């Protein structure tokens, strides 16, 4: 009887320890993308632009919209129901206004075509390429 109590106690303590060691990374869900996200970094570099760059996701309509720092952008979301972390953008277009500094805009538009998946960590959204390298770091717009 004592041996059984000891085994049960060990199992309970071990389970609690494992639960406490959970990471701050949140499981990916396409529905969590809904809304607008400010682009904080693209390709590891902080963004600076005339207008605050952001990406908006209308998950119900599979639509992407936003601003790349100068021009508005729009496109479609492509997801995979069997792999909820998979994400890419199809048919992305933008307006063609010229701004004094187009570097951030160009970086955003080039990187957006390379997005293949996403993840969350500490309320930050990461859009990544096929090898898992972060292309975008975004925070939820208020």
Describe this structure as you would to a colleague.
There is one protein chain. With 142 residues, the chain is α+β, with helices and mostly antiparallel strands. It has one domain: Beta Barrel (Lipocalin), CATH 2.40.128.270. Helix content is 20%, strand content 39%. The chain contains two helices and ten strands, in the order αβββββββαβββ. Strands 1, 2, 3, 4, 5, 6, 7, 8, 9 and 10 form a ten-stranded antiparallel β-sheet that branches. Strand 6 (72-79) and strand 7 form a beta hairpin. The longest helix is centred in the first third of the chain and has 19 residues, at 2-20. The radius of gyration is 20 Å and the shape is globular. Residues 8-24 have low confidence and may be disordered.
- How far apart are the termini? 57 Å
Strand-residue fraction?
35-45%
What's the CATH first level? Mainly Beta
The helix/strand order is: HEEEEEEEHEEE
Tally of helical segments: 2
- Low-pLDDT runs: 8-24
CATH topology: Lipocalin
The multimeric state of the shown protein is single chain
Largest sheet: 10 strands, antiparallel
Q: What is the 3D form?
A: globular
Supply the number of structural domains. Answer: 1
Helix content: 10-25%
Q: Return the average pLDDT rounded to an integer.
A: 85
- CATH architecture group name: Beta Barrel
- Radius of gyration, in Å, reads 20 Å
Q: Kindly state the number of beta strands.
A: 10
Category from helices, strands and their pairing: alpha+beta
